[in-house]
Amino acid sequence: VHPNVSQGCQGGCATCSDYNGCLSCKPRLFFVLERIGMKQIGVCLSSCPSGYYGTRYPDINKCAKCKADCDTCFTRNFCTKCKSGFYLYSGKCLEKCPDGLEANNHTMECTSIVHCEASEWSPWSPCTKKGKTCGFKRGNEVRVREIVQHPSARGNACPATSESRKCIVQRKRCQKEGKGKKNREEKRKKSSKDESKETRQESKGRAARRQNREQRESNNKTQPKKRKAPNKEQDLAPVDTAH
User: Which of 93, 94, 136, 218 is least enclosed by beta carbons within 10 angstroms?
Assistant: First the structure.
């Protein structure tokens, strides 16, 4: 250590020298040596840099180096992040994950193997052929299911999500598109036409009956009353000739 020790240091140093930098740190700061070429300079930091972990002692707080394969660590024997090419597992950095686990290249950790999971099958669809449900005897029906859990890299692959099978239906003729609607429309028009025809006939009948009644009433008013015919029995009565 250079003998020129100063008490008026900057950057969190409690004591320092021009040659070695910080020699001790203020309370709660960590002392760490940084290499600059062939020279090491002491610095005081609020937290330890990558590749170091902090240790606290009554007289000094220091940053110690992690193991060579650790990028960051909690203690020397417990890593929290590994360097490139290693996978983290239970605080250790491994080149290969244990049996039953797989390497996750995204997080660089050893994780559990996840297998694919699928939902239950749906009910079978109606029997169809070329998109139609009529005009044939044999067709196909299908059912589907969904993937609810996708597998990890070493997990079991997902099964098929659809199945089809042959089916037989009662043969029936297909109605032309719009024919059923057209027939219903024609029936409705015909029914409406018949109702209108009956209504017109009833109206004509009432008008004819009213006209006949008026004609009879008019004839009764204009014809003279008929004279009462004489009683033939009275005309043929014998004449009293006694006088």
Answer: 218
Strands 21-25 and 52-56, bridge-based pairing: unpaired
pLDDT-based confidence at 236, cuts 50/70/90? Answer: very low
Kindly report the pTM of this predicted structure: 0.47
**Is position 196 within any domain?**
no
Q: How far apart are CA 86 and CA 158, in angstroms?
A: 29
CA distance 14 to 22: 7
Provide the residue range defining the domain that includes 23. 7-65
61 and 19 part of one domain: yes
Residue 155: which of 122, 216, 113, 192 has the closest Cα? 113
Residues 94 and 138 in one domain: no
The answer to whether residue 231 sits within a structural domain is no
Helix (H, G, I), strand (E, B) or coil at 59: coil
User: What's the maximum distance between 2 C-alpha atoms anywhere in the chain?
Assistant: 204
DSSP state of 94: E
Whole-number Å distance between alpha carbons of 105 and 162:
32
Residues 164-177 pLDDT 10s: 999 987 666 777 65
| Predicted pLDDT at 168 | 86
Give the whole-angstrom CA distance, residue 79 versus residue 213: 119
Residue 81 lies inside a defined structural domain of this protein:
yes
Helix (H, G, I), strand (E, B) or coil at 154: coil
Q: What domain count does the chain have?
A: 3
Alpha helices by DSSP H, the chain? 179-222, 232-235
